[in-house]
Amino acid sequence: MIPDFVQGAIAPVFTACNQDGSLDDDGQRAILDYLIETQAVSACFVRCGLGQLFTFDEADTRQLVKTACEHLDGKLPVLAGAMGIWDRNRDAMPDGAVYLNQAVELSKYAEGVGVAAVVHTMPEPMRPAAGQTFADAIVDYFQAIAGAVGVPVLIYQNPGTAEAYCVDEELVCRLADIPGVAGMKLSSASAEYIFNLTYALKGKDFGFIVGAETAFLAGLVTGARACIGQGATINPQTIKAVSDRYAAGDLQGAIEAQYSTNMLVQKAPNCVAFFKRWLAEKGYNVQPYSRSMSGNSYAEARKELSQEEYDAFKPILEAELAKY
Fold it and tell me: How many structural domains does the chain have?
């Protein structure tokens, strides 16, 4: 069954940090408070890509997930990135058995503290056994995770996933047929790719989540239900409007909300740095720090946010939010 929270804007929650890179629980609660107050978010996804998931160890994961579940209890569902530990260095892959064990244990922990679902990236550390295809290894992994927990499992094909681990129409249908696997976030703005996958999935009880908010309306037309992208944290109001207006039959209104969403993505500077500074200016107890991504192959270090960039984007964002 597709969970009710797989709709509209699902926020990929930015991770609050102290200056030394350790987790800032008070700052994390402040970010979550803002997301609650927008009344535009259907769920909060912690240990996500924009939250620097590849910098986490097991203790970090437990701390972040526990903080979110305790703070959001009865307010918003929590989705937790519960994959094993890997810094995404493909020249130093973790042992597959260790990675799978970590993923199972972190998933069980997350379930125990109250998450609504666990999220797992495509399992690049899991190599095919003799006679297996990559697709077989991927299916085995998600069968193991889904068999270990009682909460829904969501798949996350994040940016830069190795080609051998990317879904096609056949694989996504195999994954959708695994009991307990409830949906997938695909980080792609390709309307063709989204269309082909959602077309293949028609009639299946599987929640497709667009992972590039600039493609959200196109995804809704072909069967997607929700969106996870930077805008679902910074401007969830516009993304919720795309979904709500489309569902109400107001196509032109949905198009206008999609235009606002696209424009904010295109004009945003360093989105995490901007958001933390903006929240602090609004009175939330959020520090400006993030963990260093230097040397991490997941993403290039984002350009440092200048005061000029902050001052230029702030009125643009606030003018768009005022429309919704």
Answer: 1
Cα distance between residue 264 and residue 50, in whole Å: 16
CATH number at residue 156: 3.20.20.70
Domain that holds residue 251: 8-321
Strand partners, 226: 8, 209
77 located within any domain: yes
Q: What is the DSSP letter of 163?
A: G
Kindly state whether residue 3 falls inside one of the protein's structural domains. no
Contact (Cβ atoms closer than 8 angstroms) between residue 65 and residue 29: no
Judged by DSSP in three states, 152 sits in coil
User: Is the distance from CB of 186 to CB of 149 less than 8 angstroms?
Assistant: no
Q: Is residue 1 assigned to a domain?
A: no
Q: What is the pTM of this model?
A: 0.96
93 inside domain = yes
- Assess contact for 184 and 162: CB atoms under 8 A: no
Looking at residue 1, its pLDDT comes to: 83
Give per-residue pLDDT as tens, 183-203: 999 999 999 999 999 999 999
CA distances from 238 to 39, 86, 96, 119, 241 (A): 12, 34, 40, 24, 5
